[in-house]
Amino acid sequence: MSFHKIKGHQNQLKYLSRLKESGLIPHALLFTGQQGIGKRLIADIFAASVFCKEKDSPCGKCHSCVQMKAGSYPDFLVLERDDKGKIPVGASDKSQQGSVRWMIDRLTRSSINGRYVVIVDGVETISESGQNALLKTVEEPGSDSHIILIAESKSGILPTIVSRCIEINFNPLSVSDINDIVEERFPDGENSSMISSICGGSADVALRLYDDKIFAGIIAAAKEIKGILRGRGTAGKAFDFSGTAGPAFVITVLINLYSFMVRSHITGEVVMYPDDIALDEGEAEKAVKILLAIKKGLKNNLNVNSILKGMLYSVSEINSRGFPDPDFSWLL
Ligand SMILES: [Zn+2]
User: Fold this and answer.
1) Residue 137 C-alpha to ligand 1 middle, in angstroms?
2) What spacing in Å lies between the alpha carbon of 72 and ligand 1's midpoint?
3) How far is ligand 1, taken at its centre, from the CA of residue 20, in Å?
4) Fewest CB within 10 A of the end CB: N or C in the chain?
């Protein structure tokens, strides 16, 4: 895999190639941008190109490229989120592989082939004390070594770390880049125009939507939302997130879906949605607002199901009459 095969991000790739060719690669790079748009893939390829000595690097064939592909290159260190969703800081004995302290300790020892490259994928998940421990390493990772921090945004990173990095921001992919990526993987994929439009510029989300079960879950939720907003209700049927990728994923995709609907009402862009999920502009706008509020609540472990229903019902009632009907049932 080389930079040539990557879709989108052409300016960022050009910049990285130029850094590589000039031999002036900064000690610390910070890749920012939303999830699932290729930051990690690009970091992996960049690391391989730093180690590869061939002219058009990474060549994919030399000894270091083969080791990189196999995940066994000795001077390539990766820190990733654990099953709690955080990069561990590690105990003070520095033994926990993949932890911040382990990595800092490794960099104090000589590398096998002359330089380390470290990828920290999810730096914003490291605790404040862990980030403080990381600070000095980011400043001086050791001669010829490079550290690539990856984050969705700078907001969870200590400003002192950010200020020591060269930041490269990655934008969401365009619909046509996403089309190219998914067509390569799913040449006969159904619903491709809709999926490319609602994945929010994330190839990762688009590819997951090609899972029939996940796609069906999104459509079912969207039908339910339309039913409630149009006052038809759905007889107490719950939103079913079980067959899908979880509430956070479904809510995010629905926000993209309705945002796209609002936009296509304005721009006249034609995207084929099943009729039973299409909303008019005002409804789609309200749905986006409700879902954004719920997305924020997800962090506090709110019950998505009942809150989503409650909010949709209240919106649909206020819609039709200005106020909800007074409820005297408690008098009887
Ligand atoms: Zn190579």
Assistant:
1) 27
2) 14
3) 14
4) C
DSSP string, 266-314: HH-------GGG---HHHHHHHHHHHHHHHHHHTTT--HHHHHHHHHHH
Joined together, the tokens standing for residue 145 give 């070594």
Least reliable range by pLDDT among 18-22, 50-54, 198-202, 316-320: 316-320
Question: What digits encode the pLDDT tens for the residues 179-231?
Answer: 888 888 888 777 888 898 889 899 889 989 988 888 988 998 899 889 888 87
Q: Which residues contact 23 (CB under 8 A, 6 or more apart)?
A: none
Distance (Å) from CA 141 to ligand 1 centroid: 24
CA–centroid distance, 46 to ligand 1, in Å, is 12
Identify the burial level of 331 via C-beta atoms within 10 angstroms of its C-beta, where 0-12 means exposed, 13-18 middle and 19 or more buried.
exposed
pLDDT tens digits, one per residue of 107-135: 999 999 999 999 999 999 999 999 999 99
CA of 18 to the centre of ligand 1 (A): 18
Cα 10 to ligand 1 centre (Å) = 22
pLDDT of 332 > 60? The answer is no
- pTM equals 0.78
One-letter identity of residue 76: F
More confidently predicted of 300 and 98 = 98
Longest Cα–Cα distance of the chain, Å, equals 84
How far apart CA 169 and CA 155 sit, in angstroms, is: 13
